[in-house]
């Protein structure tokens, strides 16, 4: 999965990728990484997180085998 701050138009994504809103587990994971980043670089976390991660999205594979139909065995 890839987390983005901002949005991306659907036509810019491959058909194997879906855009997903963050769930509570995603927010907890991002909270950990962003907190560590801000502590290390002495940066204000609220400037990145904003209001409850509302500016973040998650990009994830559309299925557990996103390229399965492209290859033959």
3D architecture notes:
With 73 residues, this protein is of the alpha+beta class. It contains 2 helices and 3 strands; from the N terminus they run E-E-H-H-E. Strands 1-3-2 form a 3-stranded antiparallel β-sheet, with no helix packed on it. The two termini are 26 Å apart. The relative contact order is 0.28. The mean pLDDT is 87.
Blueprint of the fold:
Blueprint: E1 2-5, E2 17-20, H1 24-41, H2 46-49, E3 56-61
Antiparallel strand pairs: 1-3, 2-3
Put the structure in a nutshell.
With 73 residues, the chain is α+β, with helices and mostly antiparallel strands. Helix content is 30%, strand content 19%. The mean pLDDT is 87.
The major sheet is characterized as: 3 strands, antiparallel
Helix content, binned percent: 25-40%
Counting DSSP E segments of at least 2 residues, the number of strands comes to 3
* Order of adjacent strands in the largest pleated sheet: 1-3-2
- Tally of helical runs: 2
What does the average pLDDT come to?
87
The helix/strand class is alpha+beta
């Amino acid at each position: 999965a890839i987390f983005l701050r901002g949005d991306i138009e659907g036509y810019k994504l491959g058909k194997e990728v879906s855009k997903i809103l963050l769930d509570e587990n995603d927010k907890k994971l991002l909270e950990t990484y962003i907190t560590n980043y801000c502590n290390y670089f002495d940066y204000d976390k609220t400037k990145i997180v904003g209001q409850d991660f509302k500016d973040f999205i998650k990009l994830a594979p559309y299925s557990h085998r996103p390229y399965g139909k492209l290859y033959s065995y």
